[in-house]
Amino acid sequence: MEKSPRVLGRPRHDEKAKPTQEVVLLTATNLFIKKGYKNVSMDDVARACNVTKATIYYYYPTKGDLYTSSLVGMMERIRFHIEQILNLPNPFKERLEQLVEVHLSATVDIDMKNFMREATMNLSESQLKKVHASETAMYETIERSMQLEMDRGTIRQGNAQFFAHTFMVLMSVGYFKDGEGISLFQTSREAAKEITDFFWRSIEN
Predict the structure, then answer these.
(1) Is 121:38 a contact under the CB 8 Å cutoff?
(2) What CATH number has the domain bearing residue 97?
(3) Amino acid 109: pLDDT
(4) pLDDT tens per residue across span 53-85
(5) What is the per-residue pLDDT for 12?
(6) Residues paired with 204 in a beta bridge
């Protein structure tokens, strides 16, 4: 856990032998992470990929389509890593703590709230449905784990969906910074322990 993990939502930056569409999506995702929706144009993506703008439009007819695919891809990668951690054999509380630490360390430069806010402002209804479906899948991964541990008697009986959403909200507290940019916690490990301990007291059997 000492080694800082790769950003969970960021695709691997290895363009060797990748199809053009994958390179375009990888590049656009990294640009959106750094600059946000409004500050990235299709021209920017084309230049960064060293392809024509027509090539970008061939795969993604609109900037909204490209942004949608970027968001969906990020959330699918995050969900995959969440599932991997929750399927480990160690005790449930340890898995939750590890999930918080890895998630906070590896998504430090991804402002998901801003991503979702920009999506709401700039995407069509059908595009938003795709984004929300991926977001729901992330929560459902945690929800299934909560339900499984209830069935095992590890945690108290309750609403698994409520537990999952509460856990994710508490995890976001780990990103908090005051007006001077000072974090609430000194390290991701400290945040993970405090957040998990607080959450665990509400669900322990």
Answers:
(1) no
(2) 1.10.357.10
(3) 65
(4) 999 999 999 999 999 999 999 889 889 999 999
(5) 52
(6) 155
pLDDT of residue 5: 47
Instruction: Number of helices (H) and strands (E) in the chain: give both, helices first.
Output: 9, 0
60 C-beta neighbours (distance < 10 Å), count: 21
The domain tally of the chain equals 1
For the record, the structure tokens of 99 come out as 């999930």
pLDDT beneath 70: ranges in the chain: 1-17, 108-109
DSSP helix/strand/coil, 155: strand
Q: Is residue 196 part of a domain?
A: yes
How far is it, in rounded angstroms, from Cα 195 to Cα 173?
Answer: 8
Q: Indicate the residue type of 33.
A: I
Q: Which two tokens stand for residue 162?
A: 């409520």
What proportions of the chain, in percent to the nearest 5, are helix, strand and coil? Answer: 70, 0, 30
Residue 91: give the domain boundaries.
20-203
pLDDT of residue 122: 93
Query: Could you tell me if residue 3 is inside a domain?
Result: no
Q: Work out the number of other CB atoms within 10 angstroms of the CB of residue 199.
A: 20
Handedness of CA 101, 94, 137, 14 (dihedral sign): positive
Q: Determine, yes or no, domain membership for 149.
A: yes
pLDDT at 8: 52
Handedness of CA 39, 175, 1, 116 (dihedral sign): negative
pLDDT of residue 92: 98
